């Protein structure tokens, strides 16, 4: 429940959104007058500022926008669910409670079918081979090329601004687990549609648990563990209640096919600023992938080291187990067919994804 301060702030944000819509009309009548206008936006996050994917990277994005627009676009970062909880960010941005925020693509299945079904799926063929930079580049390229992909955001009154991949989703558990067989019957935190399917193929019992309740749910035995990224395991201090880490594949594990987080902005908020400043923000965003790749890679490596230092045992799933899992869970192909059945270009996008992935890995495509 929002605090009294947050309720007032939410009301102010809605008023600001209305003002933004009026400003958009004014801009169409007198663009020169709007050019020098300054706006104060809010970026609402459900996680602490220290969370690299939605906190550290967001602050750098905000700083660069401030510089590029010469202070005309100021963005206030409101973290830790003070204004919007993680699961409420998409609706909150749509309604103008905040101007922008980081949306976890798996949190609301059906609202954004291409984003949640295909890009939020897990490709067990390329997922353990692509790095963060490659996944970012592929997500951006597919979004740039596909009108249906872009349209699903536009239909909701939001704009997808920046794609930020997570590091691989791995399993941290109270119970020892070194093989797929060890996972049989374990209860793991799940969300969205993709992870429960993967977990079911592992023999896991998926349990829907809110992000903020992972720690206490493991601590009290409601669940045995969680499937999440390494930095989240550290920021949520899951190592205090679970001491066994099973990595889903070689290296750091298997990535989702696309970026798991997209920064979205309210369409009316964007219209409230000049076209010139919108172009500056777009240029800033386009330059972010190199920073994103470095930040995510460094923090993930550091998180794995910290988990080991906290006494967490680490095991990688064997090649044999990964092959067996791939046979049981052809998630990416199933996601493509699901989109086809809805009249969306699932198979087409899946083929393009695999071509981009192959070209990136071979060096034929250097984004």
In short:
This protein has helices at 4-29, 31-35, 52-68, 89-94, 113-119, 132-145, 147-154, 180-183, 194-202, 214-219, 230-235, 267-271, 275-286, 289-309, 319-328, 331-341, 346-362; strands at residues 39-44, 73-78, 100-104, 158-164, 169-173, 187-190, 205-208, 225-229, 244-247, 261-266, 313-316.
What does the model show?
This protein is α/β, with parallel strands linked by helices and 367 residues long. The chain folds into 2 domains: 4-109 and 153-166 and 258-298, D-Maltodextrin-Binding Protein, domain 2 (3-Layer(aba) Sandwich), CATH 3.40.190.170; 169-256 and 303-331, D-Maltodextrin-Binding Protein, domain 2 (3-Layer(aba) Sandwich), CATH 3.40.190. Helix content is 50%, strand content 15%. The chain contains 17 helices and 11 strands. It has helices at residues 4-29, 31-35, 52-68, 89-94, 113-119, 132-145, 147-154, 180-183, 194-202, 214-219, 230-235, 267-271, 275-286, 289-309, 319-328, 331-341, 346-362; strands at residues 39-44, 73-78, 100-104, 158-164, 169-173, 187-190, 205-208, 225-229, 244-247, 261-266, 313-316. Strands 7-6-8-5-9-11 form a 6-stranded mixed β-sheet, sandwiched between helices. Strand 6 (187-190), helix 9 and strand 7 (205-208) form a beta-alpha-beta unit. The protein is globular. The relative contact order is 0.17.
Describe this protein with a few key phrases:
three-stranded antiparallel β-sheet; D-Maltodextrin-Binding Protein, domain 2; 17 helices; alpha/beta; 2 domains
